[in-house]
């Protein structure tokens, strides 16, 4: 089904006689009597089929030429619509532009009618194309594809016109003043201590840290969250080099700690502001005194490398103790007793 040869006269008999092994054709079983009759009439049917084939080839050639000519005409019409002039340049009338500028605030009813008529024309053309009878040829299928592609492009153009291009967000004015911006619309809290400023941003818990970019400046802090800026002007000047940013492992919040600067930089002069309590002042005074204290000088000659040869010291020879002189008791000593049983001392 769908084969152009199926429209030929006696095509079934020709196919049955040409293909003896064929049992079914177009959903119908081939009976033996039908096959015998087709073989008998084959000599008459074959020249008719050949003539019809030639006529079909000529018709197909004409259809191809018509399709190519129609396609070229459509291309030329599209080129003329895209270019207002014959040389491809735009030509405008001054009077028409002035009248359009004068009627900018309100639309005339004629313009509205023209716009509505254009829409009706496109819808009518579309209905006419789909309701038009056509042959099941490769050219007709290509024509339908071109029509669908044209509709798609028109829809894309309309959607592009409807889209409003958002202007870029101004974070810093022309005068150099930073603005407070919260485009991601996240909650935050700012804690201002005597020593530092702590900013707590309620960043989404399961957001990847690579999507967050932190930029700390002396007077403001900027955080880019998935390309959306969060900017906050700080109440005091901070040290960007000493600042730190960490994320909580439980809540996912971003905590930025920014230590304050001791001096405030103004337009022409520097005004010093003491941000430290009295205990810190006393510590500084003691440190300054310790720096000015005199220290003992050390002989630089004493600072030398150790002598390896003297690591193991030899044992000093101690003189033997001389035996004390033996005291021999004197017989004249009153406490002396001469016992004959005791041997004499050597």
TrEMBL record:
Recall the taxonomic lineage recorded for the source organism: Eukaryota, Metazoa, Chordata, Craniata, Vertebrata
- Residue ranges of region Disordered? 55-123, 269-346
Origin superkingdom: Eukaryota
Compositionally biased intervals (Acidic residues): 330-340
- Which species? Sapajus apella
Query: Does the record bear Plastid in its keywords?
Result: no
Q: Where is the composition biased (Basic and acidic residues)?
A: 55-82, 102-122, 278-305, 313-324
Q: Give the UniProt entry's GO cellular component terms.
A: cell projection; cytoplasm
Question: What is the annotated localization of this protein?
Answer: Cell projection, Cilium; Cytoplasm
Q: What GO terms in the biological process aspect are recorded for it? A: outer dynein arm assembly
Is Heme among the key words of this record?
no
Query: What residues does the CS domain cover?
Result: 181-280
The protein's name in its UniProt record:
Protein tilB homolog isoform X1
- The UniProt entry lists the main location of this chain as other
- Which SMART domains does the record cross-reference, listed alphabetically? LRRcap (SM00446)
Which UniProt keywords are given for this protein, alphabetically ordered? Answer: Cell projection, Cilium, Cytoplasm, Leucine-rich repeat, Repeat
């Amino acid at each position: 089904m769908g084969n152009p040869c199926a429209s030929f006269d006696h095509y079934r008999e020709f196919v049955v006689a040409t293909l003896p092994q064929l049992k079914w054709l177009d959903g119908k079983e081939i009976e033996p009597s039908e096959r015998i009759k087709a073989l008998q009439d084959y000599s008459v049917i074959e020249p008719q089929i050949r003539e019809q084939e030639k006529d079909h080839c000529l018709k197909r050639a004409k259809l191809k030429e018509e399709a190519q000519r129609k396609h070229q005409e459509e291309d030329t019409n599209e080129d003329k619509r895209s270019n207002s002039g014959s040389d491809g340049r735009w030509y405008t009338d001054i009077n028409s532009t002035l009248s359009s500028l004068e009627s900018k605030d309100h639309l005339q009813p004629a313009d509205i009618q023209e716009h509505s008529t254009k829409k009706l024309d496109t819808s009518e053309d579309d209905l006419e194309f789909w309701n038009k009878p056509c042959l099941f040829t490769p050219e007709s299928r290509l024509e339908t594809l071109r029509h669908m592609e044209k509709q798609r492009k028109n829809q894309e153009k309309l959607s592009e016109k409807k889209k409003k291009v958002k202007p870029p967000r101004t974070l810093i004015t022309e005068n150099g003043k930073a603005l407070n911006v919260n485009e991601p619309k996240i909650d935050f809290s700012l804690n201002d201590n005597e020593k530092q400023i702590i900013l707590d941003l309620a960043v989404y818990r399961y957001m990847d840290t690579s999507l967050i970019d932190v930029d700390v400046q002396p007077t403001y802090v900027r955080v880019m969250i998935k390309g959306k800026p969060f900017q906050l002007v700080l109440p005091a000047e901070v040290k960007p080099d000493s600042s730190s940013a960490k994320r909580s492992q439980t809540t996912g919040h971003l905590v930025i700690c920014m230590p304050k600067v001791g001096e405030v930089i103004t337009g022409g002069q520097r005004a010093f502001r003491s941000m430290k309590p009295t205990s810190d002042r006393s510590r500084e005074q003691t440190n300054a005194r310790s720096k000015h204290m005199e220290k003992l000088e050390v002989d630089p000659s004493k600072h030398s490398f150790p002598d390896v040869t003297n690591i193991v010291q030899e044992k000093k020879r101690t003189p033997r103790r001389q035996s004390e002189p033996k005291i021999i008791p004197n017989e004249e000593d009153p406490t002396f007793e001469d016992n004959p049983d005791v041997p004499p001392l050597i």
